[in-house]
Amino acid sequence: MRSLRTGLSLASLVTGLALLLGAPPAQAADLPLRDLADAKNKVIGTAVAGSKLTGTYAEIAAREFNAVTPENAMKWGSVEPTRGTYNWAEADRIVDFAEANGQQVRGHTLVWHSQNPSWLANGAWTAAELRQLMNSHIATTMGRYQGRLATWDVVNEAFNEDGTYRQSLWYNGLGTDYIAEALTAARAADPSAKLYINDYNVEGVNAKSTAMYNLVRSLKERGVPIDGVGLQAHLILGQVPATLQQNIQRFADLGVDVAITELDIRMTLPADSAKLAQQAADYRQVLNACVAVPRCVGATVWGFGDADSWVPSTFPGQGAATPYDEGYAPKPAYHAIAEALGGTTTPPTGACTATYSVVNQWNSGFTGQVRIACDGASLSSWKANWTYGAGQQVTQAWNATCTQSGTAVSCSNASYNGTVPDGGSVTFGFNASWTGSNPVPTVTLG
Ligand code: G2I
């Protein structure tokens, strides 16, 4: 039912793009990632920020993904910045968005060493106080969304690289068993949620993943509730561990699910076509490994667009880690994910395409952008045309001259950006007004 709606109508209405000069629109019939994943009974998710859920960002998140993870909104520091004062607004917004779009939510994260409020991180707690704080945080946070979240990352990043336990607030105060206690409290707080422990650098077989493996085995032996293991997968270009599938399989063999929870693959900037091709191969390898193991439930990307990724601010000079570029155009990595999920995509050849996106929207207006990109073709001048179906009105444009007559908008190049070389792109922007709804039009190049 949902799949039919997405496949037939959203794909044609909201795709936001496309016109090809000199070649058929090769990707027009391709299904959204979520429909491909549904057919394989897999999760394809994305981390999201509640504040960004409008315009093109919201359209892509809803159209392409069958699951979302709040990137920051459910962390302790976000929900209880001051002791006893809760702020659920962003988390609520994400859960509501997911439900409206038939998406699962992965809760992230309850017991972690990072992004804790300073009152908690800097407090001097006895073990009894700390235990009480942890258990009541789990009960309150999971309780708020009881029955609505599919999955929770209960304990996050418990290990050091050498497989020893991380010296955290929790480990130092409660010892190793804080993990079992947190999982037990989590099961009580929401019996329907799948409970995970989650970490990074545990994708291949190594000291850290082996420590996690031993922990999960011992939790299972003790009857502690544990349903899954999250492999974050913040990877580096060309460095997908060769033992990824083997590692997923060994966890599966313990009787737990495995999820790729925070996938991104960063590269040294600037991106170029060789790096993007390598990245596509890397994404394909990760998805293939998950698809090959029935207990691998799927993969979540840690933001779907390069403009929204945590990578550039954390690793200066690195970036371009996600499947969509800064203007929300799908990259080769997007097509690799689609193919790993069973889709068929044929890259367009010899064409220039125009991609329309809403980059910001407020109650009466919005900022839009159109990116014209050429691959196997070039332009020496251009005109982008579209029709507004809901009364939108362009008020101002930059890097193009736009005129609107009735519903018909026509934007031609400025004196300095008519040339679009093979492999190059130009982008222009505009402000416009809207009321009621703001559907994305199809742009044609003429
Ligand atoms: O660090 C990457 C991820 C590693 N695994 C756990 C994830 O929860 C973690 O996510 C990142 C978010 O992507 C960042 O967005 O966690 C960071 C914090 O450890 C997040 O960064 C924070 C910044 O540190 C804050 O300054 C900022 O206010 O994001 C906040 C919201 O934008």
Descriptors:
18 strands, 14 helices, TIM Barrel, 2 domains, Immunoglobulin-like, single chain, eight-stranded parallel beta barrel
Describe, in plain words, how this protein is organized in 3D:
The protein is of the alpha/beta class and 446 residues long. It folds into 2 domains: 3-18 and 348-445, Immunoglobulin-like, CATH 2.60.40; 26-340, Glycosidases (TIM Barrel, Alpha-Beta Barrel). It contains 14 helices and 18 strands. It has helices spanning 2-14, 33-39, 55-64, 76-79, 89-100, 118-121, 127-144, 169-174, 178-189, 207-222, 244-252, 273-292, 311-314, 332-340, and strands at 43-48, 67-70, 104-111, 151-156, 194-199, 228-231, 234-236, 257-268, 296-301, 318-319, 351-361, 365-375, 383-387, 393-398, 400-405, 408-413, 425-433, 444-445. The strands form 3 sheets. Strands 1-2-3-4-5-6-8-9 form an 8-stranded parallel β-barrel, surrounded by 6 helices. Strand 15 (400-405) and strand 16 (408-413) form a beta hairpin. Helix 7 (127-144) packs parallel to helix 9 (178-189) and helix 12 (273-292) packs parallel to helix 14 (332-340). The longest helix has 20 residues, at 273-292. The protein is globular and about 70 Å long. 46% of the residues are buried. The model is unreliable at 1-28 (pLDDT under 50). It binds ligand G2I. Ligand G2I is lined by residues 71-72, 114-115, 156, 200, 232, 262, 310.
